[in-house]
Every structure is written in C-alpha cells, then in structure tokens.
Design a protein that fits this description.
Length: about 160
Amino acid sequence: MPPEMSPTQLQAWRALYRADTLLFTHLDNTLRTRLKMTYFEHEVLRALGDGPLRMAKLAEEMMISRSGATRIVGKLEDKDGWVIRRNTPEDRRATWAELTEDGRKALDAARPVVEAVVSTFFADHVSNADLHGASRILDVLADANPNDDGFDCGLE
C-alpha cells in the first residue's frame, strides 16, 4: 500500500487540481463560445502548428492512445476540415496528420483567445519568478509520471 499523503502534499495536490480544473474550464468554455472549438481540439492544432506529425507521435505528444488520436484527427478532418491525413511513399505504414489552411486560420484565431484567458486567469496573478518555479515543479511531475497503463503506484 502506498504511504499516506502528508497534509502539505494533500493541500498542494488539491490546489493544483483546483487551479487546473478552473483554468481548463475557462479555456474550454471560451473557445467553444467564440470559435466552436474545444480546448483539446486547440491543443491538437497547436501540436501540428510546427508541421506534420506521424499519428503515433501526435498520440504521444497529446498523451492519448493511438486510437484516440485517430478519432480526434478524423473529427477535425471531417467536421472542420482543419486537419488532413496523408501517407508518404517512403513509409506507407505511417500516417501523418497536418494542418490545412483552414486549420492554420483556426489556430491563429484561437491564439489571442487562449492568451487572454491564460493571462486573465493565471499569468497575471503570479510573478515571473513563481512562474519559473511552477514550470520547474510541473516538469518534474510530468517527467516522473509515464504515460502508460503499466505504471505501478503501489496499489494491490
């Protein structure tokens, strides 16, 4: 059985969960209202913003299953026309996802919305020094938590 959390650990966990949930809710609601886009759809577009990605790499970057990546890319392809899938002659087994021109426009339209929400509900309330510290801590946490189902956290 894992060790019991200390009051400090529990307080930090609850604060992280509350802040993350509130910020995500504000981002998702604002993007849905203004651009008919979910925050998760935005993150897929952002991941593809620097260029095409293999579907497996996109799944890894989004921390979802390959089938989850296939579903979200299919939705963005069919419903919105923001993404296309393609194969290359060099590797016919791999499928790549890339932004369309409409996808690039949607990503560009979302940028000021995301920046305004993140500034209003997050960054404007914290000093740069604290932001650097929070980034360092969150990177440590992300690096310590593998994205697979085989992670053993001590439960029997």
